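Q: Could you fold this chain for me?
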Amino acid sequence: MKQLKTLLLATALCIGTVSFTQAQSKVAHINTNELVAAMPEMKNVQAEIQTLEKTLQTDMQSMITELQNKSKQYTAEAPTKTQEENSKRDQELQSMEQNIMQFREEASQQLQQKQQDLMQPISERARTAILKVSRAQGFDYVLDTAQGSVIMADGKNLLDDVKKELGI
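A: Sure. Below is the predicted structure, expressed as structure tokens.
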């Protein structure tokens, strides 16, 4: 009888220990910004963004130069023109300034949209690789240390394994 109680107690302890270890989640962490920056596609993205940025800057600079030249011309010719002509010229200059400001806003939006469009497939590829590696290694959760919200990161860092998966 005493052996049966001991055996039942040992079995209960064994089952409890197994349940406890299975209930604990495995946690890993990765810095996705570092991963994405290391991906070879990022060089192409950066080059495309820089090219677009230079083009937009050139366009804006030519608009500004045109505005400055007309402003100088209109200022020099103002004494020889009528009040009505000077008023129309002032309105034209104001319209050009508004166009420049509008162009600046649209250019900024265009750059952001282009960057989003180019980054989306890269981010998705990184996410897929992270999921594949984390599942293969049995992790329940992967924390992104790039977001700065991780208080403690004692789990495994998957960065090297994901880079290897991506062939980086």
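A (continued): Residues 16-23 have pLDDT under 50 and may be disordered.
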